[in-house]
From TrEMBL:
Residues 61-265 form the HD domain. InterPro entries: dGTPase, dGTPase-like, dNTPase_2, HD/PDEase_dom, HD_domain, PHydrolase_assoc_dom. NCBIfam families: antiphage_dGTPase, dGTP_triPase, PRK05318.1. This is Deoxyguanosinetriphosphate triphosphohydrolase-like protein. It comes from Thiomicrorhabdus marina. PROSITE patterns: HD.
Length: 452
């Protein structure tokens, strides 16, 4: 591949002017560093949709990340297949496709910054950090990769430039996005809510971004692109009902996001059906009889029979068939606005598959994600995060673990100190956070011998 060593470079190599290693070695080790990281292991105790105590069958952020990696590698294989003719001649884009090691590393890493209690925990942390640089899950992922991960002392997991680019979904700084929102600036001037139970959580969803603290990583990752590509890639535009966000994605990020969407729209649907949170009548009305499926009949009634069968094998077969339909619908588009192949090449789903996938995502969102039973658990998690942060902020010397407090004292500014508390809470699993909350605030719970 052209400029291969440029993209296999690690940040520590960049700082020390060391020569980069071959891609087959670097990307395999990137994947290994993600898999063996503490942040990746903790995803097993962070929720995808349902509470961890519901059943050991349902998905967590760990199993979700593994499924995204599997789908991502399937998408790459399909792009290779459709990009290679019977004589073995490859289209130009094939040489720029990520290797299996690379796409799996990106997909496995994409949720490392996911805080306890899902999006609810993210909003709660953003509220507590609103005057200190904010909190956002994708930004936290980059922070783990570049600073907090345990592989190196100063540079986190120290993944390659291309892997880091692939995980970087929103290449814009948190404060730059917020500066475009007069409404959010007005909210920042309001006094802090004293009773978290009446906080308007919907008002504090963070912008999709990266922290100012990791700007140097953004600059390093984008270094191989020319000025015009960098400028266009980092611009943001209005989105539907929310903060502005960057409009473009790199090729690898694009593939990862398609895999993430497929896992969300189909695998999470399986959990909902198995748990009987989605009834066959609702599925029939909102999906099977929809205008979208009438226009793009990707499957028929046999899919419904399998999906709502009492047989787990039949359900799994239906889910597998749905995923296969999406994977086989991928093709490569080229955006002439960019000169670099990693920005110009964009993987897309055929029109019908994309429309049906959006329908499935909407169905899961409306019938699972936003129902009262799920939102109530999210709300409880938000209150736990808020109360923990409030107490740790007021009493860091007494409540922060010794290694975290030592790091807290080493910081030069108040914002840096608050980021230490944020990092500590963001790294908690749902189980750890709830046990710590009970230990601190429930009189009958807690002991100096507790193993949280």
């Amino acid at each position: 591949m052209l400029d291969q060593l440029e993209w296999t470079q690690r940040y520590t190599d960049f700082l020390s002017n060391k020569e980069s290693r071959p891609a087959r070695i670097v990307y395999q080790r990137d994947r290994a560093r993600v898999i063996h990281s503490a942040s990746f292991r903790r995803l097993q105790a962070k929720t995808q949709i349902f509470g961890l105590n519901e059943s050991d069958f349902f998905r967590t952020r760990l199993t979700h990340s593994m499924e995204v990696a599997q789908i991502g590698s399937g998408l790459v294989e399909q792009l290779i297949t459709v990009g290679t003719d019977a004589a073995g001649n490859e289209q130009d884009y094939v040489q720029w496709l990520p290797s299996m090691y690379l796409i799996e590393a990106i997909c496995l890493a994409h949720d490392l910054g996911h805080p306890p209690y899902g999006h609810g925990g993210e909003v709660a942390l953003n509220y507590m950090m609103r005057h200190y640089g904010g909190f956002e899950g994708n930004a936290q992922t980059l922070r783990i990769m570049s600073k907090l991960g345990e592989y190196t002392r100063e540079n986190g997991l120290d993944l390659s430039r291309r892997t880091t680019l692939g995980v970087m979904k929103y290449p814009a700084l948190y404060q730059d996005v917020l500066s475009q929102s007069a409404d959010y600036q007005e909210k920042l001037a309001r006094p802090e809510t004293t009773d978290f139970r009446v906080l308007d959580f919907a008002s504090w969803s963070p912008p999709k971004s990266i922290y100012a603290e990791e700007k140097y990583i953004l600059d390093w990752v984008l270094q191989p692109f020319n000025e015009a590509d960098r400028h266009r890639f980092t611009q943001f535009s209005p989105s539907d009902g929310g903060h502005q966000r960057t409009h473009y994605k790199a090729l690898d990020t694009n593939i990862m996001e398609l895999a993430d969407d497929i896992a969300y729209g189909i695998h999470d649907l399986e959990d909902a059906v198995t748990m009987k949170m989605v009834r066959r009548e609702r599925w029939q009305e909102q999906v099977m009889e929809s205008d979208v499926l009438a226009k793009y009949p990707l499957w028929g009634d046999e899919m419904t029979e399998r999906l709502f069968s009492d047989s787990s094998k039949a359900r799994k077969h239906a889910v597998s068939q749905m995923v296969g339909i999406m994977v086989e619908a991928i093709y490569m588009h080229e955006n002439a606005e960019f000169s670099h192949p990693l920005l110009a090449y964009q993987a897309k789903l055929e029109e019908g598959a994309m429309a049906v996938l959006e329908l499935l995502k909407k169905f899961v969102f409306e019938n699972v994600i936003t129902i009262a039973e799920v939102k109530q658990m999210e709300y409880k998690g938000q209150l736990i995060v808020l109360e923990l942060f409030k107490s740790l902020r007021a009493n860091p010397s007494a409540l922060l673990p010794s290694k975290n407090y030592k790091k807290y004292l080493a910081q030069e500014t108040e914002q840096e100190q608050q980021r230490v508390i944020s990092d500590y809470i963001a790294g908690m699993t749902n189980t750890y956070a709830s046990r710590l909350y009970a230990k601190l605030f429930t009189p009958s719970q807690g002991s100096i011998f507790d193993m949280l």
